[in-house]
């Protein structure tokens, strides 16, 4: 059967120029240019520091299946997420068709291998719906982004031009691809119908089907023109888009698969100062942390390339919410802009200046404003990391002696006294003096116990938080635990020391504690401080297993070792809500034990805040963060207390002494004294012990 | 510019609970932690910044025993180029003038354009800087909070009564005592100190310095501490006692009662 229209592979423009020339040239030039751009883009990755991401392939593939292919994190933002899922799957489906089309321009009978039979029929049926769905999704996306402009995409003038035009432009490119692909086919089918041939089936309701109906009345000549023009519009747009991707925020179309594969697998840790360098060899390193761009690891730069400027991280970031000078989104975008301008497509690499401070792309306040709460990383649909970068930038600042004055005293106290308050070591166990009805052993050469209660600095020294230590001890006594504390031999866990970039001080605190814990001969460790819990569990080595007190309570209630009495009359009128501490929840996945522990109190009424579990809102951070005075419009704690108020609660239960400090302060600042209170989970449980 | 900064090792007031010993002639020194005198830290930072701008080198010097070496290392970790430890049993018990005498001998051993001291020390009497300048017959500016480095003559700012600022021109060589707040001293971590851990720090004794042992030390001291005590509470003074909350509540009551709070 003679084809009713001449295909692009055989068509002759003006009757003598074979269009197949374009069919060959466009891919050649397109792929060539794309290869050149990619080579330039890969250059900074080659020059960057090492990063070990080639381990644990099974887990990494699982991440790819869930986060990349499964688009698991997208529906967390329903509207944008669903649009993205449509476009994403549309792309996956249509990539086969687009490739097929490119080859069809050279060899007209080409069919993608495997698509010749039934599978092909199914594919061609669905790809038309995919194209149609993508078309409408990008139109909605363009309108949403260009006209409604959600706040999330706001771009402070100081950072340059926003990406609205780029976003809308890309939506139009995609729409063009969908329309031209459909039109190409529709013109052919319309011609087939006109000629009375057996026409290719077009799925009803699709773009191709719609165009076919519109084109039915056109002359064969016009249909031939539509057929050829739409083919080359598609071909050109396809290769233009390919080369446009690595120039901006749509680079993620190419990099996302790799970025998700290489994303961090473990939470609650910080990467080593330098991959491949052991702790004991750190002294030999010339420089620490990230000072210049090439001090970043290749994964950091891949992160920068991959950021799609979707703003989810910034929307969840507590620092950004209270208008601190930090938005994780701009850590990435400024990083990418830097990479593009210093590793240009044409010309030589530009010499690198320092990244932080005057003349750099990041400000000092920006880098110190992060509480390492992890909300950004939890949200990013592309697996971009921030904590490692922030800590590495801080390591660079610390190495240059560039530490905010307000942090120098506590750091020096940590070095000399093992706590940030400069209190004397021998007073570390003083909180036990006011404890009645429960004996807390101080573990030394003569005294032994099965379990170590690791108190950490704030609960040891802060007058208010000492009550948390006493409550924790009462619980341990009630469940019959044979336990003790290290007393003056305990030093700060160093969780924040590490996260503030003072690695060597952290190493010395850690080494001291590990040795003290080993000497004590305990079989297990319990703590009520999530920051200590995190460090001991994820970063200390060769020590017994660590439990948070909420786990102890939940288990003891289940086994009947711990009996809790019901709420008092006064408490019965209260509504409780649980605030997830970042280092218990997001970093360690303990969302349920604290809730179960609260719910174990008969008669207690508990509600959830809008932002809870892995979307919990940081109280403003613990450890050294308590000493840092950031620029901000509102306290994070105040925002959080308002969340609780909105949820209808009047008691905030938390399971972290730092959260408690911040909540109690915030209640006062918000003027909610008498209307709202904060209590530690341990205190709440201890008050209901009925053994 | 060659700069000598005189530093002192003192008990860190923010990290110690200072108590008088049972004899009542000194503070309880068990369990104390020491650090560089805060003012000296500002002086060293300023010296480093001057050298960064105009070139030269910074030497830090202290009078003390082996333990004083740690403060020299800390300042060298900050960026001072050389350390100098003036140590001799004969120096023990020196008064301010004795210390100034020792330092003068050290200054004369080198060739310095600028001598800096802290304005005072945590447990000191703010006297060494001025005495040192007088003994050297160098011009002196105290409580300096701004320096514009230059050859021959420099401009220095001084903090004067009521927070006013005064700018002086001073000829080199000179002695300046430095006030806190002149800069933001950089942080020194364990890593910085380890980097300079093996740098040799020369030690000079009384004879190295050409000092007559009788001119310094306890014997030569004309100012002697005869007593050490916490002052009795005077009229109108009251120590508030109790937990922090109770103290705050009492304070607020007082302020309200006296009309300070409405």
Which helices and strands, and how do they pair?
The complex is a heterodimer of chains A (691) and B (262).
Chain A lengths: L11 E2 L3 E2 L1 H28 L9 H13 L8 H27 L13 H31 L15 H31 L12 H9 L4 H25 L7 H10 L36 H9 L5 H5 L1 H4 L6 H15 L21 H5 L6 H5 L7 H13 L5 H13 L23 E2 L8 E4 L2 H5 L4 H13 L4 E3 L9 H5 L3 H18 L3 E4 L2 H9 L7 E3 H11 L9 H4 L3 E4 L12 H8 L6 E2 L28 H11 L4 E4 L2 H13 L7 E4 H6 L5
Parallel strand pairs in A: 3-5, 4-5, 4-6, 6-7, 8-9, 8-10, 10-11
Antiparallel strand pairs in A: 1-2
Helix pairs in contact in A: 1-7, 1-9, 2-8, 3-4, 4-5, 5-6, 5-7, 8-9, 9-12, 22-24, 25-26
Chain B lengths: L1 E5 L2 E3 L22 E3 L1 H17 L2 E7 L5 H10 L3 E5 L9 H14 L4 E5 L9 H9 L3 E9 L4 E8 L3 E8 L2 E5 L11 H6 L7 E2 L12 H4 L23 H14 L5
What does this entry look like structurally?
The complex is a heterodimer of chains A (691) and B (262). Chain A has 691 residues and is mainly α. Chain A has four domains: 176 residues, no CATH class; 119 residues, Fumarate Reductase Iron-sulfur Protein, Chain B, domain 2 (Orthogonal Bundle), CATH 1.10.1060; 140 residues, Up-down Bundle (Glutathione S-transferase Yfyf (Class Pi), Chain A, domain 2); 125 residues, AF0625-like (Rossmann fold, 3-Layer(aba) Sandwich), CATH 3.40.50. Chain A has 27 helices and eleven strands. In chain A, the strands form three sheets. A five-stranded parallel sheet of chain A has the order 3-5-4-6-7, sandwiched between helices. Chain A has a four-stranded parallel sheet with strand order 9-8-10-11, sandwiched between helices. A two-stranded antiparallel ribbon of chain A has the order 1-2. The radius of gyration of chain A is 31 Å and the shape is elongated. Chain B has two domains: 219 residues, HUPs (Rossmann fold), CATH 3.40.50.620; 28 residues. Chain B has 262 residues and is α/β, with parallel strands linked by helices. Chains A and B meet through helix 16 and helix 20 of A and helix 5 of B.
